[in-house]
UniProtKB/TrEMBL annotation:
It comes from Methylobacterium trifolii. It comes from the Bacteria. This is Sensor kinase CckA. The gene is cckA_2. The lineage of its organism: Bacteria, Pseudomonadati, Pseudomonadota, Alphaproteobacteria, Hyphomicrobiales. GO terms for molecular function: kinase activity. Residues 66-179 form the Response regulatory domain. The modification 4-aspartylphosphate is found at D117.
């Protein structure tokens, strides 16, 4: 059955070959974890490859001030990014707190505004994210949002809460504050 696999064959070809044998593998009683791997290979053949995270391609411009949009809904994130692109801030979008923290690790000193939803993809939620940012990058203006019945969660004193559905004007006001008001002192 596997005589078509040969040494030196690229991994994607090996995956495609395994995917072509998927039905017979399952009927022969292949362990579920291997069948799951084959299903993922098969799905990657159908689905387009995921693009690199937007921050990976974002050019590093010395002295540029950034707005970080952290939202797991791609349409809402795109709307917020589009709004913030009309300001003097560069914009980076993330779908998880973990992705946002990676951006902050590399460009944290440039981040003037973080606009985050409470519910996010990944293990951390937006509330945990703003608490971490408040401690580690205290100069960033923090704006938290939610549309899931959250009124004003326990969050850092300097953070702002805007319930969903938010209005464009509210976001633009916070962006203006992030660029015009002095940053809080670092203790």
């Amino acid at each position: 059955m596997f005589d078509t696999l040969s040494p030196g064959m690229p991994l994607d070809q090996i995956g495609q070959t395994l995917a072509s044998f998927y039905d017979s593998l399952v009927s022969e009683g292949v362990p579920e974890h291997l069948a799951a791997l084959v299903r993922r290979v098969r799905q990657s053949e159908v689905a387009p490859a995921e693009p690199a995270p937007p921050y990976a391609a974002a050019p590093i411009v010395s002295g540029e001030r950034l707005a970080l949009v952290v939202e797991d809904d791609p349409e809402v994130r795109a709307l917020a990014e589009t709004l913030l692109e009309e300001t003097e801030l560069g914009v980076i979008g993330c779908d998880s707190a973990e992705e946002a923290l990676e951006v902050l690790r590399t460009r944290g000193g440039e981040v003037a505004l973080v606009f985050a939803d409470v519910r996010l993809a990944g293990a951390m939620d937006g509330l945990q994210l703003v608490r971490a940012i408040s401690t580690l990058w205290p100069r960033a203006r923090l704006v938290l949002t939610s549309g899931h019945g959250v009124r004003r969660p326990e969050m850092p004193a300097d953070a702002v809460f805007i319930p969903k559905p938010w209005r464009a004007f509210e976001i633009l006001v916070e962006a203006e504050r992030a660029t015009s008001e002095p940053s809080p002192p670092v203790a």
